[in-house]
Amino acid sequence: MAALVVRGVRDVLKRADFATVPRRHRHKKKWAATEPKFPATRLALQNFDMTYSVQFEDLWPSIRVSLLSEQKYGALVNNFAAWDHVSAELEQLSARDFVNEAISHREREPESGQTAVPSPASLACSPNLRCFTFPRGDVSRFPPARLGSLGVMDYYLMDAASLLPVLALGLQPGDTVLDLCAAPGGKTLALLQTGCCRNLAANDLSTSRTGRLQKVLYSYVPQDIRERNRVRVTSWDGRKWGELEGDTYDRVLVDVPCTVDRHSLHEEENNIFQRSRKKERQMLPMLQMQLLAAGLLATKPGGHVVYSTCSLSHLQNEYVVQGTVEFLANQYSIHVQVEDLTHFRKLFMDTFFFFPSCQVGELVIPNLMANFGPMYFCKMCRLT
């Protein structure tokens, strides 16, 4: 009997405690709102299966399995370190400098009777870059970079395809250069490695990402070099750069925010396929067009721009380039010529797999034998 009384009292107290809590303070878990049914990585794969199977047709299964497999890296030699010693160590690992191998092969072409007639602008590669990769089919990994004898890191590990936009930009000594969307800093570092930058503006809207960029510069570039090259790191809205510094730069790199296809399949953190970022994802092509237009407006007439993404989507690649060129012609009477990079593709086809059917620009597609990319890049010359 006593047990029944105690149980009854407990029930009354429970009801009383609950009743004293105002309705607005009661918590009821909203499963549909707080816990997405699928992780963002799965949503990304579903999206890619729907769109890329149409865009790439028979190539998609091979690209798909490569995207889901371990990525391959290159080692960008730091010219501010003891680069000759670093290069020798990388060669001992059976890695090869794909940049200088390709350029040496091109210089030997006339001797073998082959003819090539691309424009000088298409032929020009940014100089002094050394990047080592393992041969096709070799899935060896580079050791982590270490601090060298000169107080800076020996090399920078990056997707070797990420170097192609910098190579395509064709820097010349004394150029004024803008890296409009610079973080996390691999391409900015490569621009400095060329030794061509009279001054370099490195911008990214995100202050946390420019913080990462600053760390890369401090780890790889001596202070006197940073000052001599007048490296300026900013966190401005890149879409307004044409208004801020119009007709200013000889070379502009516009490596825009995109769906970051490989990252989206492997990482939940900062994944643009999160349900809360759906609108942001849908607006990407518009943002990319605005950034490319700003980059072209910031370029001097006669200067060059390279647009790049790490996405396979033609909506973010060729369509953005074509739409921006048309927009500038109609709204600003500014004429832009898209450069033919066919020779550039042939130059590096021993290292990368290229999609053969881009309307404009070039696209590195992942392949298990050389699992770099994706990396799209397109070179333009501002004529007026």
TrEMBL record:
S-adenosyl-L-methionine binds at residues 181-187, 204, 237, 255. The keyword Flavoprotein does not apply. It catalyses: a cytidine in rRNA + S-adenosyl-L-methionine = a 5-methylcytidine in rRNA + S-adenosyl-L-homocysteine + H(+); a cytidine in mRNA + S-adenosyl-L-methionine = a 5-methylcytidine in mRNA + S-adenosyl-L-homocysteine + H(+). Keywords: Methyltransferase, Mitochondrion, RNA-binding, rRNA processing, S-adenosyl-L-methionine, Transferase, Transit peptide. The active site is at residue 310. InterPro entries: MeTrfase_RsmB-F_NOP2_cat, MeTrfase_RsmB-F_NOP2_dom, RCMT, SAM-dependent_MTases_sf. Residues 79-383 form the SAM-dependent MTase RsmB/NOP-type domain. PROSITE patterns: SAM_MT_RSMB_NOP. It holds the Pfam family Methyltr_RsmB-F. One of its GO terms (biological process) is methylation. GO terms for molecular function: methyltransferase activity. It is found in: Mitochondrion. PANTHER family: 5-METHYLCYTOSINE RRNA METHYLTRANSFERASE NSUN4, NCL1 YEAST -RELATED NOL1/NOP2/FMU SUN DOMAIN-CONTAINING. Belongs to the class I-like SAM-binding methyltransferase superfamily. RsmB/NOP family. This is 5-cytosine rRNA methyltransferase NSUN4.
